[in-house]
Specification:
Structural class: alpha/beta
Number of domains: 2
Low-confidence stretches: 218-224
Order of helices and strands: EHEHEHEEHEEEHEHHEHHHHH
CATH class of the largest domain: Alpha Beta
Radius of gyration: 22 Å
Strand content: 15-25%
Oligomer: single chain
CATH architecture of the largest domain: Alpha-Beta Complex
CATH superfamily of the largest domain: Spore Coat Polysaccharide Biosynthesis Protein SpsA, Chain A
Distance between the termini: 56 Å
Shape: globular
């Protein structure tokens, strides 16, 4: 890798006029300045497209593309198609970065020129307050340690799938024609990360926190509703992609298994949230899948606390109608108790 690499920064943009100045200004203030900024206006209906054009007129590192609305994946793909950099990074238009964001990436790339993917920690912005909840350390994972990398980033750092937490080696995109799956409406970043991992042999994580992930807008590009569909998709993606990587080795098999079925448990419990209007038929069809397809694996997990043990034991009844009634009763009662406890705490 050449010194002083060119970084392509891609920002998919949709109706974020209120936040785009903060985002772009933070990038233009970077300590490391050898970058190009690709702004992809994904059919916005507010004035953000005009704002982007104004920035491009004043800085020749900025290019703007306007397209019909097609979703975040299509916007990212258009940016990739037009990127000239040695490395590619993604920023959501409602987020922003600290001045050392690119500098810390490049410093790690210089230290480990064979690395294909570099992770940083994330700062969360909630109600105007910044906080760091990740615990990313300086580490390098080689190919036969990618499962350990997944477990570490998913469990410890809690940012495995986020595109905003990493920088990608650009020649991997070009040589493999690797792009985001535009058919996926959620979890597209997680699925993409797994496919990218199949094309590289080194991953680095660095103890730096320069990306500010904002929760202070109504609908964040990176925020998803943890519905049954989302959680079930997460479980399926993790299970499939880890198998493709031949990752389920004897040493870490149980941890991977635990990760997949954590999503399974959360998905099933999400059906019984008071805010979810699932029908009895929908719930019972899903329950049938759990006791016919997932029961054996769920029963293998060491469950010593929590209501997961109850979920597994009830599934053994193999009667969707009875199981649904028990779950509705249990989770309704739990919801009421949680409300009472919350009121007491106040």
């Amino acid at each position: 890798m050449q010194p002083n690499p060119l970084i392509s920064i891609i920002i998919p943009i949709y109706n974020t006029e209120r936040y785009i100045h903060r985002c772009i200004d933070s990038i233009l203030a970077q300590r490391y300045s050898n970058f190009e900024l690709i702004l992809v206006d994904d059919g916005s209906t507010d004035g953000v497209g005009v704002v982007c054009d104004d920035y491009a007129q004043n800085d020749d590192r900025i290019r703007v593309f306007h397209k019909d609305n097609g979703g975040v994946s299509s916007a990212r793909n258009l940016g990739i198609d037009n990127a000239h950099g040695d490395w590619i990074a993604f920023v959501d238009s409602d987020d922003f970065v600290k001045e050392n964001w690119l500098f810390d990436y490049v410093r790690e790339i210089d230290k480990n020129p064979r690395v294909g993917l570099v992770y940083q920690g994330i700062i969360r912005l909630i109600d105007g307050v910044e906080s760091i909840k990740d615990s990313v350390e300086d580490r390098v994972f080689v190919e036969d340690e990618f499962v350990a990398a997944y477990i570490y980033l998913d469990r410890t750092a809690n940012n495995f799938g986020h595109t905003c937490s990493k920088i990608y080696r650009a020649d991997v995109f070009n040589q493999s024609n690797l792009r985001f799956n535009q058919r996926l409406s959620f979890c597209e970043d997680l699925e993409f990360t797994f496919r990218f991992m199949q094309k590289i042999d080194r991953i680095a994580t660095i103890n730096s926190y320069n990306y500010v992930y904002a929760f202070d807008r109504d609908v964040s590009l990176g925020r998803i509703n943890h519905s049954y569909e989302v959680l079930d998709r997460l479980a399926n993606i993790v299970n499939k992609q880890l198998s493709i990587l031949d990752a389920r080795t004897e040493e870490v098999c149980e941890e991977l298994f635990d990760s997949v079925y954590n999503f399974r448990f959360r998905a099933l419990k999400s059906l019984y949230k008071p805010s979810v209007n699932s029908t009895a038929v929908e719930r019972r069809n899903i329950i049938k899948k759990y006791y016919t397809t997932y029961y054996g694996d769920l029963n293998r997990i060491d469950l010593s606390i929590g209501n997961e043990e109850l979920i597994v034991k009830v599934l053994a009844l193999r009667n969707a109608r009875i199981i649904d009634w028990i779950y509705r009763t249990v989770f309704t009662l739990k919801s009421k108790l949680d409300k009472i406890s919350s009121k007491k705490d106040k």
